[in-house]
């Protein structure tokens, strides 16, 4: 590919001769790495016509660059970036005027203040990745996913690939969710009660913006998924963290002036506690009593390899009080960005309008690919395969933990993909995680899950969805040793 | 695919015998369309074990349904949904308790109040679709897009397909934008100054949320892209609509207390006016004088088939004052949902954090597919092909308009994909559009582009990116006749 003539502009305010300006543009292109060794320059005739200068000016500039070894000429075929041209440093900051904008003033709202878990980008290169929520290539059915994606790229699906989806989502995907996915959770919903979202995070965000404002109060579990707390803090609603116990969120502890209750009954995040049926009913009763809405994040319900999952809270909701959040990201892959909301029509209508304003809609191709993957049964097969492997890993993990005398603070009775752990008092797991990372062991510190200001520092999470079974025992040995060193 | 046992739950609060409940679950499944003719029921043994009831209870329920012709039995192979089972109405509302939630109270903020252009979902079935921003299948290089998508589904790209992209975007796509796309607009940017967004809409939304709050003022063009005005209204900032003229936004008319100026210098939306270079510089000077930021939406710059495009406003920005919004949706397809923001690092950092909170990141597969399509040169080839066709259509359109004496209110001097039209005073183009739709002609009414409350009702937009050249003249004839009938 030659260098396009369109990349050249003369700056009317620039200093120096036209020839010098042209030379400088080309040299800067090479130095900044935009033009690569061996790339062909536009002909002097073309560049001269494009810039509106005489051809001799361009030729003189090229000749000068030839002498400086920026360019090389290949007889009549033209000028090329020379093999000997200065090698660009990878993305050197380009010469520009010093920016005069006062960003502290220009930025009206900051979003970078939150406490996030940092996952090293090279986590796959670590020997013992007890990380959470990532895809294990050995468990993901990449071949069938690709087949479904290719099918969704076919002529027949042209409209679903290319069109706008403003007023509706992919009807195939919606139908599958309504007829197959939700009934397994005991939920009956019409298409108008379902909205496809860009993952569960997007579903939670949309819900918070429709149901909350500064005057309203949200109750959250403590500890809870840190990104949920962060987005509620940003919404500037009032926030009531409610400490969870071994059965999840205690209904009687939800403040009476709460407007929206966020809960994870299937596997409490991060403690993995499962809320018993009686408490689910009690939570619904409490919500009715104080006239609060409930947002149920039903993540990971599919990974119930230790026992049948309870029906969703939404399945015993007679009032339309429960907004249900589902996701395919955990069981497929996080980069998919596909989740859904189930709720009453007036709510879904507002959430859809907000979604339109913020991002229009999740890309059609992804919706259609997922619809094929689900309806052809690949999804169920993958869940079965994942469950069998996760069961093995879970057993290896619990055995290794017992052998080394580590303490489990929470374990999902139905399954899941992580354990919630407690190190001895005084152990700072942020420091522990740093030390372990040097030895190839990745764990997640627990502090970001807690509401401030007094956060316990000695919890951590062990994910087992990405670590091979045989690495679990030696990995746990590293952790036990590192904890001993802390004491 | 048989009916999964997981879709069955007994409701602990249900009335009636266990047998009756099981019968009812199955009948409801058939009546609601969840269970299809010919699908196999779980064996009585399996279902009994799952529900924790005796096997004879399930068998009795099945026998009863057999008698009612809901089910049929095929000897020893089990029970199936009968061919004669009642055919479900498509998604009958399911029997549920009346919802008691007061949605007027529960919804904190409404997003459904805006004025949107309604595009009929079946627009492809209309003979004369003068609609805007949709993909013409004869112009889109579907075959190479599919090839790139398949390549991006390969084993080598597994990580980019499946992984989280929180702190960065696809490096291939970013590199292409930095080295090839932006230099064509005269813009030099480092990777840290670029953020991939879910289309231009998402880019504008993120920008508005970072730069504006209730205390700040945004200046917008009047008329302007209605979805931009809508998202600013929702942000609750103060809004100053500034009437545009034939050269776009007049800098001297921007109020002195403006914090952010939203502008479309390349093709003003919707009038298609192109801002001359001198005015661009004057706009930058005005922004510096009043210390305002500028958001430049550079949509459609590629479709400059009538003349070379001017460099972007961002290219003459020395201060870092301009935030640049680019998009691939117009030139590829709107369902792609891929755009980008270019701005100074402090701004991009906040926009990225906000994007993470709202939707995490645009799906990796789409980013990688676009990177391949761009870097293999298919994108440029497509733009050339589109431009040649759009030029033909534009000429046919201008000729037909002249022949019928219709009035063009704005035409992009460089190209574009639409004309901005004015009907005689007193013609209501909303009504005109309705009448034309019955004759297979789709035009866009102009009122939603204007800031209220006194909106002119006689403007309309004619897109020519989806209508075949030979349909243009007869389509314009219909429009001229319908306007005559209004008079």
From TrEMBL, chains A, B:
It comes from Cribrihabitans marinus. This is Transcriptional regulator, GntR family. Residues 16-84 form the HTH gntR-type domain. SMART domains: HTH_GNTR. PROSITE patterns: HTH_GNTR (PS50949). Coiled coil: none annotated. GO terms for molecular function: DNA binding; DNA-binding transcription factor activity; pyridoxal phosphate binding. Pfam families: Aminotran_1_2, GntR. The keyword Chloroplast does not apply. InterPro entries: Aminotransferase_I/II_large, HTH_trans_reg/aminotransferase, PyrdxlP-dep_Trfase, PyrdxlP-dep_Trfase_major, Tscrpt_reg_HTH_GntR, WH-like_DNA-bd_sf, WH_DNA-bd_sf. The keyword Transcription applies. Keywords: DNA-binding, Pyridoxal phosphate, Transcription, Transcription regulation. In the C-terminal section; belongs to the class-I pyridoxal-phosphate-dependent aminotransferase family.
